[in-house]
């Protein structure tokens, strides 16, 4: 059995605004094992990115983590002071952003940025750090890596900049990498190359990867497990093939029905009606009930508990779609 390198329990991240409290992440629980790829999916505004930033300790006021636990290799990150977090970030856990320029400094050469990322955590010579930086660039498929180290970010294409950002995240062989839609802006050919390289690197290095995306087709080819988020909560988790072939939650079914590949030629897509609710004004009961064609009175009045099914699957729904065996329920909120 794969040991969990990252364990998140009942994570809650709220933003204190003039209009009230926005519960961007509300009781999220996730685990990721060594070498495992977990796909975290959902619409824009579902809380995916805030979950990633919360794990990294990058949520700034007016937002803050107000509850829950984040354990990285058994070490609690919630409540850790900023100095300690800086030693963890980059060394034990790293993040790849959608825009590589959030990682790269436009006025510094690539070699300077990559070697500093190593020297901040290890007492090695600059020559050794430079050799490791070159090796990292070669690993992500950048040709003439020794020469490209001397370049500035603007001298790279968008795809190459993203490869540099990925190489930088891998420099210190972190236990966990969080990737926040890093290939969304890239063309399909470059995207598929980077996905294949990341998948291979995670297998070789034993790094756990949380891949945040709205694209189910990417998750289908990349991840072993999937967690579906809606309105700040995880509404379904399970093995990726099982969830995509036999969804338990109506929201997951709706996401799958919205895919062009699922539509009959000449027929409109089976879209989810309405839009994601404001996280500051969630409806009573199940947050998805106003958009769900299977909703009943209990859905509109009571928030569903988390239900555990066979083969480790979970769903937060009063009327799960599948007939697979129910194992247990929890009263968590």
Short structural description:
This protein is α/β, with parallel strands linked by helices.
Characteristics of this structure?
single chain, globular, 9-stranded mixed beta sheet, 333 residues, 2 domains, alpha/beta, Rossmann fold
Can you lay out the helices and strands and say which pair or pack?
Layout: E1 4-17, E2 20-33, E3 37-41, H1 48-56, E4 63-72, E5 75-76, H2 82-88, E6 93-96, H3 110-119, H4 126-139, H5 145-148, H6 158-170, E7 176-180, H7 188-205, E8 208-213, H8 216-222, E9 225-230, E10 233-239, H9 240-245, H10 250-257, H11 297-301, E11 307-309, E12 314-315, E13 326-329
Parallel strand pairs: 3-8, 3-9, 6-7, 7-8
Antiparallel strand pairs: 1-2, 1-4, 4-5, 9-10, 10-12, 11-12, 11-13
């Amino acid at each position: 059995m794969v040991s969990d390198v990252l364990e998140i329990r009942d994570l809650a991240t709220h933003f204190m605004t003039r209009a009230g409290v926005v519960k961007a992440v509300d009781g999220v629980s996730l685990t990721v094992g060594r070498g495992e790829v977990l796909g975290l999916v959902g619409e824009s505004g579902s809380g995916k990115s805030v979950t990633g930033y919360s794990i990294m300790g990058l949520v700034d006021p007016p937002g803050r983590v107000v509850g829950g636990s984040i354990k990285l290799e058994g070490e609690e990150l919630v409540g850790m002071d900023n100095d300690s977090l800086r030693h963890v970030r980059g060394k034990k856990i790293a993040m790849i952003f959608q825009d590589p320029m959030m990682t790269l400094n436009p006025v510094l050469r690539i070699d300077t940025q990559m070697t500093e990322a190593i020297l901040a955590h290890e007492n090695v010579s600059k020559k050794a750090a430079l050799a490791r930086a070159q090796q990292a660039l070669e690993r992500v498929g950048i040709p003439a890596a020794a020469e490209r180290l001397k370049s500035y970010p603007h001298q790279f294409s968008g795809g190459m900049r993203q490869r540099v950002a990925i190489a930088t995240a891998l420099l210190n062989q972190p236990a966990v990498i969080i990737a926040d839609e890093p290939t969304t802006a890239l063309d399909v050919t470059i995207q598929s190359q980077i996905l294949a390289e990341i998948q291979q690197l995670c297998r070789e290095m034993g790094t756990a990867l949380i891949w945040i995306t709205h694209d189910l087709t990417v998750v289908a080819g990349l991840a072993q497990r999937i967690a579906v988020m809606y309105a700040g909560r995880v509404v379904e988790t399970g093995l990726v093939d099982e969830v995509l072939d036999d969804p338990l939650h109506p929201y997951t079914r709706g996401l799958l029905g919205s895919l062009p590949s699922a539509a009959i030629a000449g027929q409109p897509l089976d879209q989810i009606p309405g839009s994601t609710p404001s996280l500051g004004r969630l409806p009573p009961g199940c947050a998805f009930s106003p958009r769900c064609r299977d909703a009943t009175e209990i859905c509109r009045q009571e928030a569903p508990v988390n239900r555990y099914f066979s083969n480790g699957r979970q769903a937060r729904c009063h009327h799960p779609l599948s007939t697979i065996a129910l194992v247990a329920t929890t009263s968590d909120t």
